[in-house]
Amino acid sequence: MKPTAKKTAPKKPTKTPRPEAAAKPSAEATPRFKALIAAGKGKPKAPATEPPYLPPADVAPAPGTAPFATLQDLGATWIAYLKGNDAAVSTWASYQADFETAAAHFSPATDPATLTPEAVAAFEQSDAVMKTKKGRPKAMPTILKTRRVLRLALKWAHDAGRLAAFPYTAK
Fold first, then answer.
1. What does each of the 171 residues of the chain score in pLDDT, given as a tens digit?
2. Which uninterrupted H or E stretch holds 158?
3. SS3 label, residue 117
4. How far is CA 6 from CA 10, 12, 14, in A?
5. What values do phi and psi take at 109, rounded to 5?
6. For the chain, which residues make up each domain, given as ranges?
């Protein structure tokens, strides 16, 4: 066997800071970014659990905002409202699935004005809320979120003047 020469790896060049990179201001200092923040369009914020704006309850509904005829209409309008107010896709998609659970329990054609505190309490204790499809108990955070979604949607409709009575008892 012939002896082979030892191969050496080429040396990596050392990085020197580029002058143009050092002179460029950060994204936070650019005038465009400052203008976006001033206009209220800065970095997106995490979605709140409650919708960010609800009209006061004492304000008369705007023309064309009649009371909801069905739970299906209420749910579709509420989800569209969440989408329009920059709720994260994961938020409104999970809220939509949980609202569909409630609509399936009551029937999508149910008039939301006919919901009573007793009917809501029965829904909150139903198997659709408390158990998985396989019959196992759901985790408590999942149960609470499913309950919360129906309450948020009904509260939104009530505060917007499109639902006469809020079917939850005061705590």
1. 566 666 666 666 666 655 554 444 454 456 665 666 666 655 555 544 544 454 444 444 454 467 888 899 999 999 999 999 988 999 999 999 999 999 999 998 999 999 999 999 999 999 999 999 999 999 999 999 999 999 999 999 988 888 888 888 776
2. helix 140-159
3. helix
4. 12, 18, 24
5. -85, 0
6. 71-159
